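To the team - 1,3-dihydroxyacetonephosphate complex, inputs and output below.
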Amino acid sequence: MKITLSVIKADTGSIGGHNRPSEAMVVKAKEQVESATANGLLTDARITFTGDDIALLMIHTKGVDNADIHKLAWDTFVETTKIAKSQGLYGAGQDLLKDAFSGNVRGMGPGSAEIEIEERPAEPFIVFAGDKCGPGVFNYPLFECFANPYHNAGLLLAPEMRAGFTFTIMDVNNTEADKIITLKVPEDYYDIATLLRDPNHFVIESVRENATGLQAAAASTSRLHNIAGKYVGKDDPVAIVRTQKTFPSTGEILSPWALAHYTLGDNRGSHHVAVMPVKQNSIISYFDGPTIISAAGYCVHEGHLTEVVDLFDQPFWDYVRNKSAEKTLAIRAQGFYGPSMAGMDELEYTGVVENLKRLDAKFILRNTIKTS
Ligand code: 13P
Ligand code: 13P
Ligand code: MG
Ligand code: MG
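Output:
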């Protein structure tokens, strides 16, 4: 059976500050997708939240970028915004950057990751959802789990993976059009690394198997400051990764997250901290962070989802969470100096620009060098 897995997420308001949506918002989102399932638009759906972002996982047969599915997501976020406003929550409607829906949520604020697949007899997959980070948070773990035998032992042990994978990478600084490049491992390994080392500029959009062309992963690529022209909150991306058989195993896909890699996000979206893999429906706390990622495992069969397995809810990840907190505290000890805060290219969307302009007017020139 041909089905589409669509994950669309948005921050439409939260309790405390940027901490978590209210129960009433989550209930409303559930009602919306349940009624779309009853009406036959969806075959199944699940609602989760990660920090202050609500993610809709929708299963259907309409293909990617379908206007009805995107409208359902947009309308759901309009409804949760209404609740957030009625409850006086913080940042109500934060990620709805346009007034009226125009066919697709891309470029309007919400993040989306979608894959159309021919269902395998067993179709396991993972939905990753992040808060307080940009889409570049996936560069390291997605590249590593598909391309590096250190994490993906299947590249050595499973002959069906030997042909490697193709990465579609987007230059997210180009706002005129989707500027993408398609590169393969193992052939283009160093070229891919050259791009992915700059996760605020180049991000993985999708991954396919070289041998079959089958799509293994999709990630959201939206950058809110590129849409709004100023800082309006962090992108807080989502990704779908199919697992097992000719794809890496579920454990191989989780393996790179044990590093608790440093990424840009956290408080005001402007600090480098270590990613913390968290359980489903975790909240945000220390320094409006740390940056968190949740991982929900499912199987889908004839368009219907199994119950979820909460992949970071396992004692191993308690150790990683502690390590992540230590790494975050280590860089936070440096406050605003140097690499602990974002570079100017990211900060230029914030109020620091006005500060610098004001200070520039107060600078004086001394010992001018005569050139003629
Ligand atoms: P199976 O042999 O059940 O496919 O599992 C192998 C595996 O993925 C272990 O990581
Ligand atoms: P969100 O993007 O998760 O709303 O966070 C915004 C922020 O600035 C937190 O300090
Ligand atoms: Mg928020
Ligand atoms: Mg958020």
